[in-house]
């Protein structure tokens, strides 16, 4: 991997904090929601977009990510693969600079990297559980539920382009996330910017996005392994 000035690999976080921030990034990266202030045409466009997203059999993409830390003069970069299987299974495989694997499967989260693995029961962590439930609401097309959770601002661009800003309403989420900015085209998310309380900012670019993927049994086992399994191999869906 090419080295750049003022950049290094991400430090390990305490398990609870790491899970919370990873879940926050993943759920907000997945799909757009409904607008808080939108014209009739924009509202209809968003509703159609949500219906299309909610009907997907699966989402597969590659990602590139850059994280700017407010307290350090450094920028952290990573890249890998992202897989979502309705209604509540998500796999994020980081391939560079060092392998790791985050899996959300219903109410359980697991994380594995070169230093070992951790698991979390979401029923015992209300904040992380809220993140994952919000993520599920995005895929289910629950517009009213999204309005209850976020203050949203939608921007229609040229052609199929769109932008959406999300500001969490709940105090629990506001303690971690200041705002999220999503940009995409059609049914594909292309860019996400997550700004945390304190100034840290994570920008993720999504490439080769496929929104109607049906994973076979082998791919499901690779991306959603049992307890104690590490990251999947190089071959993807």
Task: Give your account of this protein's structure.
By secondary structure, the chain is of the alpha+beta class. It has one domain (15-222): Lipoprotein localisation LolA/LolB/LppX (outer membrane lipoprotein receptor (LolB), chain A, Clam), CATH 2.50.20. Helix content is 27%, strand content 38%. Helix 1 (15-30) packs parallel to helix 3. The longest helix has 16 residues, at 15-30. The two termini are 24 Å apart. The model is unreliable at 1-18, 24-37 and 227-235 (pLDDT under 50).
Which tags fit this structure?
38% strand, outer membrane lipoprotein receptor (LolB), chain A, disordered C terminus, alpha+beta, 27% helix, disordered N terminus, 6 helices
Sequence-ordered SSE layout with sheet pairings:
Blueprint: H1 15-30, H2 40-54, E1 59-68, E2 75-85, E3 89-96, E4 100-105, E5 108-113, E6 116-121, H3 126-140, H4 143-149, E7 150-156, E8 161-168, H5 171-174, E9 177-185, E10 188-196, E11 201-210, H6 217-223
Antiparallel strand pairs: 1-2, 1-11, 2-3, 3-4, 4-5, 5-6, 7-8, 8-9, 9-10, 10-11
Helix pairs in contact: 1-3
What's the gist of this structure?
By secondary structure, this protein is of the alpha+beta class.
CATH topology: outer membrane lipoprotein receptor (LolB), chain A
Strand order across the biggest sheet?
A: 6-5-4-3-2-1-11-10-9-8-7
CATH architectural group: Clam
- Our measurement of the CA-to-CA distance between the termini, rounded to an integer number of angstroms, reads 24 Å
> Beta fraction of the residues?
35-45%
Number of domains: 1
CATH class: Mainly Beta
How many helical elements?
Answer: 6
Shape: globular
* Secondary-structure element series: HHEEEEEEHHEEHEEEH
Tell me the radius of gyration.
Answer: 17 Å
Largest sheet: 11 strands, antiparallel
- CATH H level, superfamily name: Lipoprotein localisation LolA/LolB/LppX
Mean pLDDT: 75
Computed structural class: alpha+beta
Low-confidence stretches: 1-18, 24-37, 227-235
Helix content: 25-40%
Number of strands: 11
